[in-house]
Amino acid sequence: MMNFTQNCVFCGQWHSVLIDVKAYHAWRNGELVQKAFPNLSATQREQLVSSICPECQNSIFGSDDEEDADECLADSLNFTGQWW
Fold first, then answer.
1. How far apart are CA 45 and CA 35, in angstroms?
2. Is 66 exposed, middle or buried (0-12, 13-18, 19+ CB in 10 A)?
3. Distance CA 19, CA 3 (A)
4. pLDDT confidence of residue 62
5. What's the pLDDT at 63?
6. pLDDT averaged over every residue in the chain
7. Over the stretch 8-43, which tens digit does the pLDDT of each residue have?
8. Residue 18, strand partner residues
9. DSSP codes joined into one string, 30-61
10. C-alpha–C-alpha distance, residues 69 and 78, integer Å
């Protein structure tokens, strides 16, 4: 395990995420972040990818995004036909 530390691109503060070294190398070699780090929250994975800390993500995107809260917008639109 290692602390992966980044400087947030919005607030300038330093933030760390505890990650597995083998998973880090898999991600850096092309593995999708969600497959490399299934144990991390979506917020933590976004922090790794974009260097935006959880607090700034919350300010920009709204409340904390939990995995089960992620849903397709189309599912909530009651779509009943073709779009064209």
1. 10
2. exposed
3. 6
4. 87
5. 73
6. 85
7. 999 999 999 999 999 999 999 999 999 999 999 999
8. 3
9. T--HHHH-TTS-HHHHHHHHH---HHHHHHHH
10. 18
